[in-house]
From TrEMBL, chain A:
Residues 2-225 form the ABC transporter domain. Coiled coil: none annotated. GO terms for cellular component: membrane protein complex; plasma membrane. It comes from the Bacteria. One of its GO terms (molecular function) is ATP binding. This is ABC transporter domain-containing protein.
UniProtKB/TrEMBL annotation, chain B:
Residues 20-237, 428-594 form the MacB-like periplasmic core domain. Keywords: Cell membrane, Membrane, Transmembrane, Transmembrane helix. It is a multi-pass membrane protein. PANTHER family: ABC-TYPE MACROLIDE FAMILY EXPORT SYSTEM PERMEASE COMPONENT 2 (PTHR30572:SF18), MEMBRANE COMPONENT OF TRANSPORTER-RELATED (PTHR30572). This is Uncharacterized protein. GO terms for molecular function: transmembrane transporter activity. The chain crosses the membrane at residues 21-43, 280-301, 326-353, 373-396, 417-441, 669-694, 721-741, 753-775. Pfam families: FtsX, MacB_PCD. It comes from Mucilaginibacter polytrichastri. InterPro entries: ABC3_permease_C, MacB_PCD, Macrolide_Exporter_MacB. The lineage of its organism: Bacteria, Pseudomonadati, Bacteroidota, Sphingobacteriia, Sphingobacteriales.
Length: 225, 792
């Protein structure tokens, strides 16, 4: 599903050039659950942003579903993204002015789903995430665990082929964190590919495979059994 | 999708109430000011447009040419109109209009009317002054017929039918009411309460209508459709040559006729009570400026708040929004704010219109639901929403989600520069308006306090409109009124300072010893006039009954007249010859120049002659103590002496000041709009200051922990904004100087713009800006630093 080859990314400030990704090569197959680990500054988040088409690489190739996307412009990337990829963030990133229902509904609006269909699709997802009873609340009125469930609901409502999770349990206590990991595992079992950046060995154990990064390139891969 | 945008926009507005309030209030006030000025400008430009044939109507003007100047006057003599109609087939109608005062007796009640016009029957064909009762073709046909306006008819007869009723004019002429006309609209230059038939004039003053040399009426021509006015104009010299007798021409009277489209006449500076194109430009610019200030607030506050909206932008982009969708979302929000401001503006305008009409001194507009103003306002609101929203929308929608969601986001330096430039623009406009207001008021004050060259205080004028009965017994009346306690002196004249004067074609002996033809302003006075007004005789002597010849063979001129004849010293003018309206004789005295017109005009040549038989007004000088008692006593005497006339009085000083009514209105409007401009600017500053302090909360916390005092933090936070105001002053001062210098050029007697006007304006705006910013910075400086540091 994903094949990146010799991917490079630099960050330039006025005086210093930092290499974030250094000729990185990796592959993720359909239906996999991959965890990416590594110390701060190793390039995990940069990699995730490029995989999510939020950022473009400086060199190298990125093939998504047999399409080379490394040189796509912003609009093409946005189009590909909204139909194929869902995001889950450490800090949830819900829109404060919208209710739970409206937050989850938002991706469907941007993909042009009719209003009646949206209700039909949002409600089962909310039910599955066990936040149906909170549908008319605003994010500030929810606990962290509930907020992350809303975020996951929003990520999956469009039935994406790939979910990118950036430290999804980072702001949660262990019990809520485990709930979130269970949800992701369920999704994976139903066929969604998941790539997750994490610091937690505990969370990483839910995945099939761990890719360890250091200074912008892969240093080790562990296959989980 | 749209529903979602509207929803989020409303929630956003509600969540940030103070921000929304600043924007909405600022925009609502800006829109209000804009529409009020638009109404004013529109009204001023709409004069006489309601006549359906306005495009075919022309006014005949006369240029009276003498050796010293060309006098352009909007008046003609009585025979010209009919002669023009007879001579030129393209002249369909000619309408003569005379203005007059009249004393009207209705049964036993007396009314002094000041707005009577005497007009040809063609008035109703040329102009749109519809009759409610009576026949448009017959009403003004016969002598001693009068058409009343609705209002006048109601005043005289209440609800009774006035048609066919008889009135008595000037206690002498029985006149029949032959029609009732609708009141003339507010934007009509021709204003009247009564319309009297021209044929009456011929009965009252036989021969008056055939005097080619007596310039006392307007002439309007209705031309055939498609007539080339310039071709008609070209035939005017030949027309005059045909009609003016050899004797008139010998008298040296030389003039030319000019026909002017009716629609141009209101803005013509020579028109009495006309408009002023300069003021229209000035107010149009002010309107745009105020709107600009309000729009700037919107841009500044929205971009300053960008950090707060950044997360939303990032999330929406990650979820699948493309940039266009976000741009439309933000544009939609700004349009919505403008639409809310629109609703408030409609309310504000409705509330303020009566006051505005009062300040403007005329009924400019009754309601915004007229003339499509509502639609215009709506369009402007949407346009502002779009244009003020486009920059913030582009900035916000351009945020990169990667940067935002990682929390590394901060507003760009470029945006801050733009905000600074915009704040400078706002304050530049505000300061220019403040300087303008100060200068206008100083000039007004100067004109009011300037010594006029005569004593204007405590002089009562009683107008009797040249009533023959009064003139017959004037000596008795003067003596009786003079006997009233506290009456210091009484004099009578045609012409008082601040009022009108007649203009006489005359010949005066100049320095070369030849008789120089001049147009000179003329006061008909009595022997007491010059001392009563405290005018200063600087050469020769004043009139005296001791000299028998003074009543017919003497004039007193002013300094300006002596100068125009070439005399270096006023003494040189004494004893020189004059010839004027059938009188010949010598100049016996020169008075120091006095301002008999407003200080906008130079003191022009004037002469006085003894001719109480022409007088129209008594001027009574009274003592300062117990003025109401004195006036009441004079009134009692008047009732006995002149029972046929109401006691209508005025004060010379008030009457003189009334000439500045236009300037006063101008000053008031200027003041109001300056206050609005600075208010809206400060609203914006308040918003900016509060966001800037919020952004710097952490910095303030660290500084306080390190030992910074409250004062040092307040000054740190205020400094940046005060610098902007100072920069604005630097830009504003030369602009304001130039603008006001240009404005002052219209005044013959004017102030110099002194440096402290600028210092004062700068200081005021600094003070106001400082107060605004302090509000925020003191709060921030006093806050407990522990809180701000913990939140990071």
């Amino acid at each position: 599903m994903i094949k990146i080859t010799d991917l490079e990314k630099f960050y330039r400030t006025e005086e210093v050039e930092t290499i974030a990704l250094n000729k990185l090569t990796m592959e993720v197959r359909k239906g996999e659950f991959v965890a990416i680990m590594g110390p701060s500054g190793c390039g995990k988040s940069t990699l995730l942003n490029i995989l999510g088409m939020l950022d473009d690489p400086d060199a190298g190739s990125y093939v998504f579903n047999d399409i080379e996307v490394a040189h796509f412009n912003e609009r093409k990337r946005a189009d590909l993204r909204k139909h194929n990829i869902g995001f889950v963030f450490q800090s949830f990133n819900l829109i404060d002015e919208l209710t739970v229902f409206e937050n989850v509904e938002l991706p469907l609006i941007y993909t042009g789903v009719a209003a009646a269909d949206r209700v039909k699709r949002v409600e089962p997802v909310l039910d599955k995430m066990q936040i149906m009873h909170r549908r008319n609340h605003y994010p500030q009125q929810l606990s962290g665990g509930q907020q992350q469930r809303v975020a996951i609901a929003r990520a999956v409502v469009n039935n994406p082929k790939l979910i990118l999770a950036d430290e999804p349990t980072g702001n949660l206590d262990s019990s809520n964190g485990n709930d979130v990991m269970e949800l992701l595992t369920d999704l994976n079992e139903q066929g969604t590919t998941i790539i997750m950046v994490t610091h937690s060995e505990h969370d990483a154990r839910y995945s099939h495979r761990i890719i360890r990064l250091l200074d912008g390139h892969t240093v080790m891969e562990n296959i989980m059994i | 999708m749209i529903k979602n945008y509207i929803k989020i926009a409303f929630r956003n507005l509600w969540r940030h109430k103070s921000f929304s309030l600043i924007n909405i209030v600022g925009l609502a006030i800006g829109l209000t000011a804009f529409v009020l000025i638009l109404m004013y400008v529109n009204f001023e430009l709409s004069y006489d447009n309601f006549h359906t044939k306005a495009d075919q109507i022309y006014r005949v003007n006369t240029n009276i040419i003498s050796s010293n100047d060309v006098m352009k006057e909007p008046v003609t003599s009585a025979p010209m109109g009919p002669a023009l109609k007879a001579d030129f087939p393209e002249v369909v109608e000619s309408t003569r209009i005379f203005g007059d005062k009249v004393l009207v007796k209705v049964k036993d009640q007396l009314f002094q009317e000041y707005r009577m016009i005497i007009a040809d029957p063609s008035l109703f064909k040329t102009f749109n002054f519809p009759l409610i009762k009576g026949s448009a073709t017959q009403a003004l046909k016969n002598p001693f017929s009068v058409v009343l306006t609705e209002t006048t008819a109601k005043k005289y007869f209440g609800s009774a039918d006035p048609l066919g009723k008889t009135l008595v004019f000037d206690n002498k002429y029985p006149v029949t009411v032959t029609g009732i006309a609708k009141d003339a609209p507010a934007n009509s230059q021709i204003k009247f309460d009564l319309i009297y038939s021209v044929s009456s004039l011929d009965k009252e003053y036989p021969g008056r209508l055939s005097q080619w040399g007596n310039f006392g009426n307007f002439t309007f021509l209705l031309l055939k459709k498609g007539t080339n006015a310039s071709l008609l104009q070209a035939q005017m010299p030949a027309f005059l040559k045909r009609h003016i007798s050899e004797s008139d021409r010998k008298q040296g009277m030389n003039y030319a006729l000019f026909i002017e489209p009716l629609k141009d006449t209101y803005m013509d500076p020579k028109s009495y009570d006309g408009g002023n194109m300069n003021n229209i430009y000035i107010f149009s610019i002010i309107a745009l400026f105020i709107l600009l200030i309000a729009a700037i607030n919107f841009i500044n506050l929205t971009t300053a708040r960008a950090t707060e909206r950044a997360k939303e932008v990032g999330v929406r982009k990650v979820i699948g929004a493309d940039r266009n969708q976000l741009i439309w979302q933000f544009l939609g929000e700004s349009i919505m704010i403008c639409l809310i401001a629109f609703v408030f503006a409609v309310l504000l305008i409705t509330l303020l219109l009566p006051l505005f009409n009062q300040v403007a001194g005329k009924e400019i507009c009754h309601t915004i639901f007229n003339h499509g103003y509502l639609l215009i306002l709506l369009c402007i609101s949407v346009v502002i929403g779009l244009s003020a929203g486009v920059y913030p929308a582009l900035v916000l929608s351009g945020f990169k989600p990667v940067v935002i969601l990682k929390g590394k986001f901060s507003t760009s330096v470029k945006g801050a520069w733009l905000r600074k430039a915009l704040v400078i623009t706002q304050f530049t406009i505000s300061i220019v308006l403040i300087v303008g207001t100060l200068v206008v008021y100083k000039q007004l004050n100067f004109m009011r306090s300037q010594s006029l060259g005569f004593n204007k205080d405590q002089i009562l004028t009683i107008n009797f409109a040249g009533d023959q009965a009064v003139l017959k017994s004037y000596q008795t009346i003067k003596n009786e009124i003079k006997a009233v306690p506290n009456v210091l002196s009484i004099t009578m004249s045609a012409g008082t300072p601040g009022g009108g004067s007649s203009n006489a074609y005359s010949e005066l002996e100049n320095r070369q010893g030849t008789m120089q033809p001049v147009n000179i302003n003329l006061y008909d006075v009595d022997y007491d006039y010059i001392p009563a007004y405290g005018m200063k005789v600087i050469a020769g002597r004043t009139f005296s009954s001791a000299y028998g010849t003074d009543s017919t063979k003497a004039i007193v001129v002013n300094e300006a007249a002596a100068k125009s004849l070439g005399y270096v010293s006023p003494n040189d003018a004494i004893g020189k010859r004059f010839s004027q309206w059938g009188r010949d004789g010598k100049i016996i005295g020169v008075v120091k120049n006095f301002h008999y017109r407003s200080l906008q005009q130079n003191v022009e040549p004037l002469n006085m002659r003894v001719n109480p038989a022409n007088a129209e007004t008594f001027s009574v000088k009274i003592a300062a103590k117990d003025m109401p008692g004195t006036i009441a006593a004079i009134q009692n005497k008047w009732k006995i002496l002149v029972p046929q006339r109401p006691f209508n009085y005025d004060f010379v000083d008030k009457n003189f000041d009334r000439q500045y009514a236009n300037e006063e209105r101008f000053g008031k409007l200027f003041l109001y709009f300056a206050v609005l401009a600075i208010f809206i600017s400060c609203l914006g500053l308040l918003g900016l200051a509060s966001y800037s302090t919020i952004q710097r909360t952490r910095e303030i916390g660290i500084r306080k922990v390190l030992g910074a005092s409250v004062v040092s933090i307040v000054s740190m936070l205020s400094k940046e904004f005060l610098l902007l105001v100072i920069a604005a002053s630097v830009i504003a001062f030369p602009l304001a100087w130039w603008g006001m210098h240009t404005w002052l050029r219209d005044f013959a007697y004017r102030i110099n713009i002194s440096w402290y006007v600028f210092v004062f304006a700068g200081a005021i705006s600094l003070l106001i800006a400082f107060t605004t910013v302090c509000f925020q910075s003191v709060k921030a400086a006093l806050a407990n630093p522990v809180k701000s540091l913990k939140s990071e």
